[in-house]
Amino acid sequence: MSGDDILDVRDLKVSFAVRRAGRKYRVQAVDGVSLALAEGEVLGIVGESGCGKTTVGRAIVGLVQANGGSIRFKGVDAMGAGRAGRRAMHLNVRMVFQDPYASLNPRRTIGDSVAEAGDINGIFRDRAERSAMVAETLAAVGLNPSFAARYPYELSGGQRQRAGIARAILPTPSIVIADEPVSALDVSVQAQVLNLMMDLREQLRLSMLFISHDLGVIGQISDRVVVMYMGRIVERGRTRTVLDHPLHPYTRSLIAAIPLPDPSKRILGAIETSEPPSLFKRPSGCAYAARCPLASERCLIDVPELRSTGTDERALACHNV
Amino acid sequence: MSRDAAILWLKPFIARPIALAGLGILLTTVLAALLAPWLSPYDPNAIDPVIRLTPPNAIHWFGTDQFGRDTLSRVIHSARMALLIGSGVVLFALATGVPVGILSALFPRLGHVLMRMIDVLMAFPTLLLALGLIVILGPSLTNAILAIGLGYMTTTTRIVYGLTLRLRAETYVEASRSMGAGTIWLIGRHILPNLISPLLVQASFVFAFAQLGAASLDFLGLGAPPEIPSWGNMLAESRTFVTRAPWLLFFPGMMIVATAFSLNLVGDALRDRLDPRFRQVFGEKG
Questions:
Q1: CA trace torsion A266, A269, A273, A278 (10° rounding)
Q2: Which residues form the domain of A319?
Q3: B171 chain-A contacts, CB cut-off 8 A
Q4: Which of A165, A284, B90, B179 has its CA 20 to 30 A from that of A195?
Q5: Residue pLDDT, tens place only, A84-127
Q6: What is the CA A151 to chain-centroid distance, rounded?
Q7: A152 pLDDT exceeds 60?
Q8: Is the pTM of this model over 0.80?
Q9: Judging by DSSP bridges, how do beta strands A76-77 and A68-73 pair with one another?
Q10: Of the candidates A47, A15, A10, which has an alpha carbon nearest to the alpha carbon of residue A28?
């Protein structure tokens, strides 16, 4: 990983204590994830629900406690950082949430929600500066500045998500972590919001961690992509390369599942129908072995490590490819 | 509040005449309490043995008691005690229940301890708890408020606890935390504003039950001092004359029922106004 990485996550581990039928379990939601985000880059994280992709994002902004690994922001350890360090993280690494209906407080005006990061960290000199910055930010996400005085219930889903994005860019951060930012929206609105995010990324020179289960969306917006399966990265590389020439059997089945607009092109190859194994009982070998068409005996015993394939930042965790 | 907002608040009352009646009774009681010295035709404590135990008539509309005191004047003056006890109990229940409930939900370790203590208090029937406390503390107005208030503090705490647990998990609270919000910020900007509506409803019910509790304590001689007119005291004093002078029982008794009932009606209407699931009924959008 090069020196100009703005965010460097190494061997991140997050586990949750879960009680089930009176017994305590520790579920390893993220099990040794390493990723690096270069300045101005969009890195996609893709995987099915429950694979830990959201947890990675939440651990980076400090919403869940990591129990292993390191997170470095601009070279500074963010997990052990003191008060000043955490404050820099709070303003510089911001999150856009999936559900625009749940992510805005119904009792606060849009303006109050958008200005929240600034209010918490005391960056506004006076009310005039605050309202000027709120108006400017609302305009930047394509909302009329008069929306500042409105309440969330007066807005449509797309408008709310624009407000959610505005909240994440006032004051301008270095990194935006977008957790499925369009999957709760109508398809027609999805494209608008995606375009907005790409515009903002360029104007504000943001780096972005874009979490999604939708390879189509990831393909449009991200420069590189990591594919996660059961808390681990199984494949990593340039988005175009990974989408055009998937190597890992899991990535292949994800890509095969993308619906094509042309009905004459039938979906070929394996489509995932079975569920992944339970996180309570992680298999001893490769977690994908039970569903994998290429699985061999070694896959049931040995956990495949993520190894570089030598070309183009590509890496893969599979014994048989 | 703008005119539109005022109409929104009045709608659930207008839509149901019975709720409007409740609001009417409540406002009448409040007016009676505020204007008691001007509204009541006689001094509530003026004794006149010559006219003792006269039935209702043109001069004394509600009759007189065993000392010849005017029942109507006493009923009107009693409204003051009723509102005083009611607001005292509501204030006490909110002032203790809200912080305990919020802190219990935000700090689970503390919450485990505090909520078990609340469970113990809830195991006692409210009136029994109040009686026990009065026996320990001695009868007085303040102690009556504390004793009844403690019984309703438990339910208030439970409601606040449950709601805060739910609010704590809301995405907008997480968003706020991810931007560095501390506990005070979360409580002030996210939790309390979302608790106001349900607490308003809870307050109206606590107020109503406080009326009944206060009347019970007064009746047992453990509430307001006997020289102060209150509906419960009037009931207690009149019980030996109940066959000769039933009006002494009827008027204060009716007032207790009417205020408690009207508060419940108002509470119902408020809940309907504040619960989005019911809003459609009143033709509001959103």
A1: -150
A2: 252-321
A3: 97-99, 102-103
A4: B179
A5: 777 888 899 999 999 998 999 998 999 999 999 999 999 999 99
A6: 27
A7: yes
A8: yes
A9: antiparallel
A10: A15
Q: Which three-class secondary structure string do you get for A229-268?
A: ECCEEEEEEEHHHHHHCCCCHHHHHHHHCCCCCCCCCCCC
Q: How far apart are CA B139 and CA B148, in angstroms?
A: 12
Please name the fold of domain B3-282.
MetI-like fold (1.10.3720)
Asked if residue A257 is part of any domain, the answer here is: yes
Distance CA B250, CA B266 (A): 24
Q: Residues for chain B: how many in total?
A: 286
* CA–CA distance, B211 with B213 (Å, rounded to integer): 5
Is any Cβ of chain B less than 8 angstroms from the Cβ of A157? no
CA pair distance B210, B127, nearest whole angstrom: 10
Find chain A residues with C-beta within 8 A of B286's C-beta: 153-154
Sign of the Cα pseudo-torsion (B214, B215, B219, B224, in order): positive
Q: Assess if residue A20 is contained within a domain.
A: no
B286 contacts A102? CB cut-off 8 A: no
Q: What is the ipTM of this complex?
A: 0.88
User: Is A306 domain-assigned?
Assistant: yes
Distance from CA of A78 to the nearest CA of B (A): 13
Contact A92, B160 (CB under 8 A): no
Q: How far apart are the first and last CA of chain B?
A: 19
The DSSP secondary structure of B141-178, one letter per residue, reads HHHHHHHHHHHHHHHHHHHHHHHHHHHHTSHHHHHHHH
CA distances from A202 to A46, A206, A285, B51, B74 (A): 22, 7, 42, 93, 77
Q: Residue B240 in 3-state DSSP?
A: helix
Dump strand ranges (E) for chain A: 5-20, 23-38, 42-46, 68-73, 76-77, 93-96, 175-179, 207-212, 224-229, 232-238, 307-308, 315-316
- For residue B251, the tally of other CB atoms under 10 A from its CB is 22
Structure tokens given for A213: 């289960």
CA distance to B25, B40, B82, per residue, from B34 (Å): 14, 11, 12
Each residue's pLDDT tens digit, A176-204: 999 999 988 988 899 999 999 999 999 99
- Count of CA atoms in the C-beta half-sphere (13 A) of A138: 23
pLDDT at B201: 87
Residue with tokens 């994998």, as numbered in its chain = A292
Total number of residues shown for chain A? 321
- Determine whether B116 is exposed, middle or buried from the number of CB atoms within 10 Å of its CB (0-12, 13-18, 19+): exposed
Total number of domains in chain A: 1
